[in-house]
User: What shape does this take?
Amino acid sequence: MCIFCKIAANEFGTQFLFENENVLAFRDLDPQAPTHILIIPRKHFENVDELTNSEPALVGELFAVARSLAISEGLPAHRTVFNTGAGAGQSVFHAHLHLLGGRSFAWPPG
Ligand code: 5GP
Ligand code: ZN
Assistant: This one.
């Protein structure tokens, strides 16, 4: 079972900022900004491409949760990111949307 599937099964007692039958949100272990939240489907998909192919509506659900967390965390400016593939910085191969905020961000990204 992958690490995010284990988190979804609540093996580590992770505190969820949001949960419903499809989606979970929790804070990143190694935050890259003052607020860094991961929003994931409960079900395992390797990356957002697989998720989009199988359950496109769920991509929208992840963004709806990001939107509501950006409001509750007080982040009018924020960044949402899917890294897809090791070459793009993906290190956990269970699709996840990063929500980052609380500082300014450079463009283009590194
Ligand atoms: P990726 O590099 O795949 O886009 O993002 C994976 C993210 O998962 C990283 O930001 C990393 O810090 C985070 N992460 C990895 N393992 C764990 C964990 O066990 N718990 C939490 N909360 N975050 C994790
Ligand atoms: Zn998984």
About this structure: Residues 56-72 form the longest helix (17 residues). The mean pLDDT is 98. Residues 2, 4-5, 44, 94 surround zinc ion (ligand 2) (CB under 6 Å).
